[in-house]
């Protein structure tokens, strides 16, 4: 909403209040002034000139030589505008003047003729071309009435104004019009409000003889009023009205359209004017549109309606989409003589739906959507009739023909007045509270501790006691409320075990050199299902109206996005990177619209383990680098003993370098190398990834800690090298050794794997270091030997393992 | 005769020891002069052949010579060892200005750091951390927050809907509604809710279709707007510096009444006006307000017994303000050169 500072002074005395002051005060009282513009800023030396004579330029067909009276002198100005003529009063940029764009006007010679200045178009004075009236769009501006020659032209063009652009939120719809803003400013400044009641001269002829009004559904159309105006002379509206419309961002059209727009800006009441002679009947029937009923709107578009839309009809066919746009068949034209003026109230939800569906958001529909003052509808019609009488020579037929309720009662709010202090934490007196409410032009009665507040319909946003708390708070000013700390129940708060464990996971990942990233949850439909830890049978979750193909469906794995991040770095000469992400993946559930959400941890590493240093070339990362990361994680979370790894074939992964990660037999993730084909498609070097369901891993928080005393007796270490078939999994040997070593085998570590000339082609040698310990005593050699032999035998039995000589 | 021999041996031994320049030579000298087959041992063995008069003198001299030689060897050995150590140390000399073998840790995402800082502050103030689903029911995302269907403040165009009833949450407020509901009408409820939210925006320097939010909620008997002001003052000073001041400006949110925006005095210029605060001296940080009675009622709390406040902030905005980051997309592009800068954040 653009508010003209000059216009506002019609209603509230702004003496001593600068536009900046006003903007700050309005902002601080709750309606943000987003911009404060001075449309005449930078303009200088623009005066009213009178074109005394206008002759053809001898050398140029399109130029005119004008003798222009500037009051103190008459000068020659060369003007190229097609509409310049002798006798006109025009804005003249004199020599030395500044016009829009900070252009300086100099004395010039045009095709040999001296030009002492420039006759200006509105564009040249900084007006937005979109709002310039058609009659001046291609030429200079011409004053239409008595303006003093030689005077500063800016005030006559409203270029001494300041424009406040208000950010209207849902609760400030009452400020979508000048009168509403005036009420607000009157309350903020605590200054009186001056509202003139419109005065309508009516003829003796009753409007009801010429028109009838019927409403089919009073719930959707609480009120419909019509006035008839005859003998209209369609022409441009007066300068002041045009300039106010332009300031508000509305392009002047003609006096009929302009008057109804002007009243909408002033009263907030959308009006519509029909050419009565084209109306086709003497009856207005407002009803729901039929399913697929069609109407051609003012913009020439054929619109198909539904039975949710409200349609203004002449009893037979549609003449306007209620509250949204008029019909082409009844449009006011230059030939219009008689006008049917509509002032109505329509259901805001219905208008909102229709405007949204037809994609026809207009000044009118947005006001209906956000709400209008129910009690201003009749006076708005009167105001329009008054303006059309004055500026379009209209004769107003007697009476408003209407249906529905013309007014609604005030909203009564009863509450203990102290509630305002209780909620705000303030110590206002009763007088301060009632005084503030009265500034808002609410009437207040008190009765002991209780206060009855009568809120007029123009403040339809105020309906409950809390609304009054806000009204008092914002007008009184929150800066007057002292900060306190809550006195209520003290609450103990801590991270949940899960949240604590998750922080630990973050620290661990970063400790192993991975940097945290956040990627988007919405990704392409194509990549969305790949790399899921568990393949989903149900179709991926998709959004109805994606903004782009890039963000159309919900990810089931973070790996595809992490691949993109690595790709991004490779393109920028950063081949050695390591990342992790913790975030939700969204697993579709058959028969349900909502996916199951799981928090996962995913990582990606590529390139060198570390940068090359002076000590020499660094090693490339490999499968065991990435596996080491997840193993470190499981150790730190104390779950390693529950974890196992199984060779796995997964889409997009290297078939020989991928392992599923199982916790107690359930697959909770995987780790491995990307498939070389994926690497090639994405221009990646050798790249390794993992993803683990974090919920499954730390569902119960971190495991508890059970303290064990330090060993008091020495341990015995024995190393063995076992030769087995190459296909034998190290983890199987590990399992058998541990099983047979219990309980004396304290720890076990694989320290060498050998394949080569010293063993057979299909064999390998695995060397383990075994530590035996008994917490209660020192083990003898015989005891250790017995267990050791048992282990070797078990390995021989299960895997055909032989001791390497 | 023997005396002269002893004196001569002493002379020989001392000069051999003095000229030894490695431990091996000393070893040899020891064997040669003091060994079991050495001359002094021989002399001592032959003592029996001497006269009674000669025996004490020669014996004494022989022992003196032996001790002297042994002492000198020991002395020389310490000396040589020290020199050898010096040589070894000299050979081990490093260029200590060469870089060490660093472990390069990864960095914590700046948004995660901001969220953690806010979490830790509010845990200290007695707020628990609640989380909730990112794919939400329309009811929790809108209706339970006093945004019925067709409310002008909600626009289908602004949300990623999955079905008519399911959408990507547009704020973390549904966690508030869910948590209130869980408490079945009994306070206090004191929570903050960090998380990802989604809006139908085109990504550009100032918009992101996915971003973070942290919301706070405190519902109890007699919670006041002045308490909100107090808590937010603590927050502003903690996050932006001890000399920050705050101001509350009226605003509108459907789920709070009254609603306010919180501004802080500019941390760059201290309130005099600069390009960070666009000359106003104040920076808009977050939205807040007193929980709307409809919200309390719908989640099972009696608004005549309970009041509460709520606030919501954007970690991206806080980060961008604090560090002068010019493009919100940096947070999701994850360029390592960006991420690493906030390693210590």
UniProtKB/TrEMBL annotation, chain A:
The record, for InterPro entries, names: aa-tRNA-synth_II/BPL/LPL, B3/B4_tRNA-bd, DNA-bd_dom_put_sf, Fdx_antiC-bd, Fdx_antiC-bd_sf, NA-bd_OB-fold, Phe-tRNA-ligase_IIc_bsu, Phe-tRNA-ligase_IIc_bsu_bact
E.C. number(s) listed in UniProt: 6.1.1.20
The reaction(s) catalysed by this protein are:
tRNA(Phe) + L-phenylalanine + ATP = L-phenylalanyl-tRNA(Phe) + AMP + diphosphate + H(+)
Binding residues for Mg(2+), per the UniProt record? 461, 467, 470-471
One GO term of the biological process aspect: phenylalanyl-tRNA aminoacylation
PANTHER family according to UniProt: PHENYLALANINE--TRNA LIGASE BETA SUBUNIT, PHENYLALANYL-TRNA SYNTHETASE BETA CHAIN AND LEUCINE-RICH REPEAT-CONTAINING PROTEIN 47
The family database entries (NCBIfam families) matched by this protein are listed as: pheT_bact, YtpR
What protein does this entry describe? Phenylalanine--tRNA ligase beta subunit
The species is: Sporolactobacillus terrae
Its taxonomic placement starts with: Bacteria, Bacillati, Bacillota, Bacilli, Bacillales
This chain is encoded by the gene named: pheT
